[in-house]
């Protein structure tokens, strides 16, 4: 027995010594606003957050044979779950476009309005590996108009009822492979689910019937799977009554629209563990929320315009799309801003939102304003309404009438938004960064030194301009220097100490822009043990710092 035990111990020892232990790759750290810097040691200089708009990618192509101007919308996009470099895109065909262009009216059907309704919404899935060639479509769902619970309200008979399905958003649980899709039918919100939806008509209503709604609310539902709590979050647009929160509508909403002049659209949320049963709006303080209009409000659980000079007094938030920026774990969003216009102007020929729709008692839905970038809570918990920031109020995230309904796909070097008719992109992690016009410096959040010791910086410090004054001057002022500090705790305080050999004078970057510029110190210092708590001190001028990470 002793010999057997010795043999087992020897085998176990040999097995353990053969194991190669590796640490997880460092998660990229992004620098998008002032909250991404530590306060001790604090920053120096004038450092301001800057954001970039998406840029059209004309070399990339969308699925063929789709009439994008006649009511087709890309509402979801992902890398497939097997992570093999294949991407999937979901297109709702038959959803009304902007302006509305609808299918021909069926013979003998009476209409509530002048515009004929499309027959329904077809939901197609396409795949690609290069955004140039695409698979044939698979129709994973179909929503026939006139199929909702209000089918007999206006006409007394089916199938037409004056209401149409609009597919809003979709996200997925990457662990289970479950996809959850939102569609609205008037103020009725419906969810549909499927697991790895690759076959025909696989999406099914979570309530078991198209006639049964999950809840009633404003018709814009923006679903996001929150992995940290294993639940679905709907960043729900809700209506806020001005006088119920102590605001005077006469001083704010100068012009009425289709929801009157005493109400504005703000962002709140609902949550669900199963995608079927949802909480009421967190911003609604009614004991029971029985529709899309609440009477009392919890303003701490919503994001509303600031009611200050930073925002237009009549600003509203019409839609929001939250997404994760690649492997960083950071959440951002773009919100569609909206301000009503005088109805007399809306009625004028050719004005925005033509042909006319959503007019009530001569109060008309006006045109939207533009898409605005928002930054989510640094923790990644999008339920924290107080953690959402709006540092880029005046930056248009996208060209006019480009709504970016789907979340972006992240490739090796880009974030790509597949929109209705075009593809737009940003270089990896370059949605927003920190810029200084003079000499500036700041320290990153502490992080564990990766085993490789190979760090990169995503930054733009390129030189530009010409030789107009007999030599280089203003166009060649950009530089970046990087120092490495060790972070230690002592007597209840955090101390940041310069590591010898890793001084900023030994790591100078000029006339360079890149997504992964290697950080090299010319002094060739000794490697830092893996797991050591460190931070970078970044010195820069006329440059933008976007992110750091591991090669």
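Q: What amino acid sequence fits the structure above?
A:
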């Amino acid at each position: 027995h002793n010999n057997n035990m010795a043999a087992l111990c020897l085998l176990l020892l040999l097995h353990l010594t053969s194991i190669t232990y590796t640490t997880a790759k460092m998660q990229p750290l992004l620098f998008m606003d002032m909250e991404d810097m530590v306060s001790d040691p604090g920053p120096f200089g004038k450092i301001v957050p800057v954001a970039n708009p998406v840029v059209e990618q004309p070399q990339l192509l969308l699925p063929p044979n789709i009439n994008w101007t006649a009511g087709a919308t890309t509402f979801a996009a992902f890398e497939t779950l097997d992570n093999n470099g294949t991407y999937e895109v979901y297109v709702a065909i038959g959803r009304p476009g902007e302006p509305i262009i609808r299918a021909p009216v069926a013979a003998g059907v009476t209409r509530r309005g002048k515009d004929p309704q499309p027959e329904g919404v077809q939901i197609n899935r396409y795949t690609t590996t290069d955004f140039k060639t695409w698979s044939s479509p698979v129709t994973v769902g179909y929503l026939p108009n006139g199929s909702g619970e209000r089918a007999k309200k206006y006409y007394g008979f089916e199938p037409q009822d004056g209401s149409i399905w609009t597919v809003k958003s979709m996200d997925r649980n990457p662990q289970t492979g479950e996809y959850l899709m939102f569609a609205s039918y008037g103020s009725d919100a419906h969810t549909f689910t499927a697991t790895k939806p690759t076959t025909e008509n696989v999406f099914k209503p979570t309530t078991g019937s198209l006639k049964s709604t999950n809840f009633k609310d404003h018709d814009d539902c923006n679903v996001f799977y929150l992995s940290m709590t294993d639940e679905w979050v709907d960043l729900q647009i809700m209506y806020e009554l001005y006088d119920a929160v102590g605001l005077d509508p006469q001083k704010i909403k100068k012009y009425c629209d289709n929801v009157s002049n005493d109400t504005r659209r703000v962002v709140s949320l609902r949550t669900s563990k199963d995608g079927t049963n949802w909480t009421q709006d967190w911003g609604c303080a009614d004991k029971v929320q029985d529709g899309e209009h609440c009477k009392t409000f919890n303003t701490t659980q919503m994001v509303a315009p600031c009611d200050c000079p930073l925002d237009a007094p009549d600003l509203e938030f019409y839609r929001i799309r939250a997404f994760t920026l690649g492997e960083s774990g950071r959440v951002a969003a773009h919100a569609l801003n909206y301000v009503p216009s005088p109805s007399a102007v809306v009625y004028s020929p050719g004005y925005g939102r033509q042909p006319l729709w959503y007019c009530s008692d001569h109060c008309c839905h006006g045109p939207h304003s533009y898409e605005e970038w928002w930054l989510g809570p640094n923790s990644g918990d999008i339920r924290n309404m107080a953690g959402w920031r709006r540092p880029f109020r005046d930056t248009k995230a996208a060209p006019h009438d480009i709504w970016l309904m789907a979340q972006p796909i992240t490739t090796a070097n880009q974030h790509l938004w597949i929109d209705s008719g075009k593809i737009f992109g940003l270089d990896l992690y370059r949605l927003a960064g920190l810029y200084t016009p003079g000499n500036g410096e700041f320290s990153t959040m502490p992080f564990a030194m990766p085993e490789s010791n190979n760090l990169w910086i995503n930054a733009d410090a390129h030189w530009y301009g010409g030789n107009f004054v007999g030599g280089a001057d203003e166009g060649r002022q950009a530089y970046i220097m990087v120092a490495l500090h060790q972070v230690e705790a002592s007597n209840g305080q955090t101390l940041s100490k310069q590591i010898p050999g890793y001084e900023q004078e030994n790591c100078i970057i000029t006339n360079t822009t890149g997504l992964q510029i290697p950080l090299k110190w010319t002094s060739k210092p000794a490697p830092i043990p893996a797991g050591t708590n460190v931070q970078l001190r970044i010195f820069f001028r006329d440059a933008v710092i976007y992110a750091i990470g591991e090669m």
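Q: And what stands out in the fold?
A: Helices lie at 2-18, 343-346.
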